[in-house]
Amino acid sequence: MPFRLSLLLVILSFVGSQAQNNPPSESTLPPGWWLIPKTETRFKVGGYVKFDLIHDFNPIASPDFFDVSKIPTDGSKGQTTHMNGKETRLFLDVRNDSKVGELRAFVEGDFYGSGGAFRLRHAFIEIGDRWLAGQWWSNFMDENIIPNTLDFEKPAAYAFARHPMLRYRHKLSPDAYFALALEEPSTNAQAPTATGKFESPLPDLTARYRMTKKWGHVQLSGFGAKLVYRYSSGTTDELFLYGLNVSGQFNLAQQKDKLIYQVVYGPGAGRFRGGLSAGLDGNGNLEALTDTGFTVGYEHRWSDAFSSLFLYNQGSVNNTEGQPATSLQAAQYAAANLVWHFAPQAFAGMEYLWGLRKDANEEQGTANRVQLSFRYAFN
Asked: pTM score, two decimals?
């Protein structure tokens, strides 16, 4: 039996064993939910199919999504047209009432694995509204302001990461909560020339405070981490990394429009975007890379059938003396789209994307892309 199917069956069996004395019935379930036969466990299967047609007016070594760090800075030219359906997504959501609150198991994947293979995005168990164990959006980021770009990648200098974690959330009031999480650390950094290996002796510690009102929400989050390089001689080079993230959303035009923003800063903050946490100083020792990023976006609803997103993001890295001259120093990302919601669960849209990469040696390159997307959601 395939491993993923076995995993889903184990999850279903575990959650199904936590039933209460007042079993739900098919008639009491919300639309889209089903009962596993002879159990009190409800489940929902869903996802969407998405097709992208992409035309690049400039070279970029990232054909399926607009990763501005892949823009060449050597002045090369060329155009490319590409199509894919890799963002197509499937999920399974399983829930059951218990004495400790609602139990939930969630698994989701898409087809951005190697060669278009199915890959895991999210997989977690949630107990009530307090505990979560598994892979989910990092507690350091703000998952509620992920920009609705047609592009899969999202902005470059933007906190955007899925991590395995153990998270605890405490409700402070009806509209505010605090959350702490231990998350999978990253050893993505420039290695010293002397032989050795990176170590992560401790998980990343992340914390957030969120307040939500009718006008929108505001979030303040931070992280602390430790990175170690152990030389073959037995000595170590150790760094403490930290960062802050301020983000939120304003609901405008009778809550039909929204303005989103995010400011992220910190030595090692690049680990929450797949970037490097550290480089080398002039003596060949590890030095934290301080990242700064700013994002602002406006989503406007022209009518019930049409919407648009206008988004701008920029970020920079304080490069160290020992980094290669071709190391990323700064990046910019901009997107504008028009989406036609021609059916309740389907849309067609066109998006223009622009990006800039600047290296430590001041060389830079830009890229322009037009993307046409179609999506149909089922759940």
From this structure: 0.90
